[in-house]
Every structure is written in C-alpha cells, then in structure tokens.
Amino acid sequence: MSKLTKQMIEDLGNKVVKICVNKGYDDTSVYFNGKRVHVGSGDIVFDDDYNYHFKDAPVEVTENCHPIDYFEYVNENHILSMAFEGRLYDLLNYGSGSKSLEKLFEDYGVYYELGNSWNLTLYPNDDSTEVEGVQYKRKPDPIRLRENGLRKGVVK
Fold first, then answer.
1. Nearest to 79 by CA among 147, 127, 33, 48
2. Partners of 45 in the β-ladder
3. What global pTM score does this model have?
4. How far apart are CA 17 and CA 21, in angstroms?
C-alpha cells in the first residue's frame, strides 16, 4: 500500500499550477489542500523562432476554498481538482489532452476524470493508496417533508 501525503499533494498542486502558467492554461483554478490557486490570463511572448510561451500570468491563492462548493463531482477523499476554460478546456474536450499534465499525474500515481466538461478531479491509480488529503463532506440534502408523506409537526 502506498501513501499520498499532504506534502506530496502540495508539491503536485504547485507543479500543476506551474504547468498551467507555462502552457497558457489561463482561467484555470486548481484546488488542493483546502485552497484554490487561480491562474489568470498572461501575456504571450514570442522568441526569434516564433515559438511562444506565456509570461506573467497572474496567480491568486484563496485559502479555505473547496471545489465541492463550486462543482458536484469531487472526490470526497480529495487529492486535487481543477476547473478550467480556454485552452485547457479545448485540449481535454476536443484535443489530445495535456501530455505534460498527464505525465505529471502518472508520476504521482493518479488519474483524472472529468466531472463536467469544465472540471476534473484526481483519483489514485491503486485503490489501496492511502490519501492524506482534505476530507470533504457533502452537505446532506434537505428533508422534503411533503415528498416523504410527512407533515410538519406530525411525528408517527
């Protein structure tokens, strides 16, 4: 049995953010260890051979921010989730994916599943992997008294 520690998840999350900045996967939010790191739009810079890279993409960190508050399909034993638009959206939905992200996920022993077309969450490759990540609890659905044949104030 292997273990994915909070520090490993922190390292993974920081590497994902770095890839998003360098590859121009702007308008992407990365959720890990109870925080959200949002990568905004950066400037495209061309070199002499007309190759481009992205420079100065603004990165904003929000603490105590959980993906379960923003989208439905989240691994409750949370490793990392992402919400995205733009280039990454196109690659994951219409292209061949992001080889750099997929290689990184493989190195950490995780894979992703799209929850919707605009978000993903990571899962361990091996079900026996212990995850030291943040545990998310879904809010219970409210009890709908009429649907259950109960009336307010009546106990049977």
1. 33
2. 53
3. 0.78
4. 6
Q: Which of 34, 22, 37, 33 is nearest to 98 (CA)?
A: 22
Residue 130 to residues 4, 13, 79, 136, 154, Cα–Cα distance (Å):
6, 18, 11, 15, 45
Residue 121 near residue 81, CB atoms below 8 Å: yes
- Residue 29 has φ and ψ, to the nearest 5°, of -115, 130
Q: What is the pLDDT of residues 41-91, one digit of tens each?
A: 766 667 676 665 556 668 889 999 889 888 888 887 889 999 999 889 999
Give 99-138 pLDDT, tens digit per residue.
999 999 999 999 999 999 999 999 999 988 999 877 766 6
